[in-house]
Amino acid sequence: MFCFQCQETAKNQGCTIKGVCGKQEDTSGLQDLLIFNLKGIAVYGKKLQEFGVKDNDTALFVAKALFTTITNANFDNESLIAFVKESLERKKAMQAKFQSAYKAKNGQDFTGSLPEAATWFTDSTAE
Questions:
Q1: Which residue has the higher pLDDT, 61 or 16?
Q2: Residue 35 CB neighbours (<10 A)
Q3: DSSP per residue over 70-122, as a string?
Q4: In a 10 Å sphere around its CB, with 0-12 CB exposed, 13-18 middle and 19+ buried, how is residue 15 labelled?
Q5: Run of H or E including 50
Q6: What architecture is domain 38-119?
Q7: Strands, E, within the chain: which ranges?
Q8: Cβ(36)–Cβ(117) below 8 Å
Q9: Domain boundaries in the chain?
Q10: For the chain, which end, N or C, has fewer CB atoms within 10 Å of the first or last residue's CB respectively?
Q11: What sign results for the dihedral spanned by CA atoms 25, 63, 67, 16?
C-alpha cells in the first residue's frame, strides 16, 4: 500500500501499511483508479470544449466522484467500484464523442497521442 491522499498521511510522506485514517489498501487503490479515470474524462472534456461540445451530466459526475474520494468520506468499496465502472463508461462515451467531433471537423480519424488516463480501459474489476 502507498497512500498519500489526505493530510493525515504518516510523517506527511504517505501511508505504507494501513492508512492513518483507517483506509485499507484496496480502498486506496480504488480511489486512485477512480481519480485516474476522472483524469481521462477530463482530457476528453477539454478536447471536446475545443469543438464547442459540453457534457454537463459528465461534469456533474466528475464532481460527485471527486467528492467521494475526499478524506474519510467513503471507504465503501462497493460504492467505489460502482463509481469506477461508471467512470469507465463515461470515459468511453466521451472518447466516442471526441472521435466523432474530430472527424466531423477534420475529415479523418484522430491519430494523435493522448495521456494513458484517457486511453486505458478494462472490462475487469480484478485489475
A1: 61
A2: 16
A3: STTT---HHHHHHHHHHHHHHHHHHHHHHHHHHHHHHSS---S---HHHH---
A4: buried
A5: none
A6: Up-down Bundle (1.20)
A7: none
A8: yes
A9: 38-119
A10: C
A11: positive
SS3 15: strand
Chain centroid to Cα 81, Å, comes to 12
Q: Which three cell numbers stand for residue 90?
A: 463515461
pTM above 0.85, yes or no: yes
Radius of gyration of the chain measured on its C-alpha atoms: 17
Q: What is the phi/psi pair of residue 39, to 5°?
A: -60, -40
Instruction: Please report, in angstroms and rounded to a whole number, the separation of the first and last CA atoms in the chain.
Output: 15
Give the model confidence (pLDDT) of 18-54 as tens digits: 666 677 888 888 999 999 999 999 999 999 999 999 9
Residues forming a β-bridge with 3: 15
Give the integer Cα–Cα distance in Å for 33 and 116. Answer: 12
Identify the residue whose cell numbers are 469506477: 84
87 is written with which cell numbers?
467512470
Residues 37 and 91 sit within 8 Å (Cβ to Cβ): yes
